């Protein structure tokens, strides 16, 4: 699976709090089980963690990563 890496715009907003990501310590996340799609940007790990908690992303198979599974980056 091929992924293109690009630098986000200078005014890119955090997906969680809407702050400018480059005003902080940005984190880029991709869902590579769905063709790696577009990246989602967070201004820091705290916003990423809050987003994961609110979206219940630590439920089910999301909490277990298998490097040998299909679709893994």
How would you explain this protein's 3D organization?
Helix content is 14%, strand content 8%. The chain is low in regular secondary structure. It has a two-stranded antiparallel ribbon. 11% of the residues are buried.
For the termini, the CA-CA separation is: 7 Å
User: Main β-sheet: number of strands, strand sense, barrel status?
Assistant: 2 strands, antiparallel
The proportion of strand residues reads 5-15%
Oligomeric nature of the chains: single chain
Task: Categorize the overall geometry.
Answer: flat
- Count, helices: 1
- Amount of helix: 10-25%
SSE pattern: EEH
Number of strands: 2
Arithmetic mean pLDDT:
80
Q: Over all CA atoms, what is the radius of gyration?
A: 13 Å
Structural class: little secondary structure
Task: Going across the biggest sheet, name each strand in turn.
Answer: 1-2
Low-confidence parts: none
Question: What labels would you give this structure?
Answer:
single chain, 73 residues, little secondary structure, two-stranded antiparallel sheet, 2 strands, 14% helix, 8% strand
Topology, pairings included?
Blueprint: E1 27-29, E2 40-42, H1 45-54
Antiparallel strand pairs: 1-2
Give a short overview.
By secondary structure, the protein is largely without helices or strands.
């Amino acid at each position: 699976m091929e992924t293109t890496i690009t630098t986000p715009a200078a005014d890119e907003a955090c997906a969680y709090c809407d702050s400018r990501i480059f005003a902080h310590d940005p984190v880029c996340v991709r869902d590579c089980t769905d063709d790696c799609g577009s990246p989602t940007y967070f201004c820091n790990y705290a916003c990423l963690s809050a987003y994961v908690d609110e979206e219940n992303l630590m439920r089910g198979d999301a909490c277990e990563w298998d490097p040998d599974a299909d679709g893994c980056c």
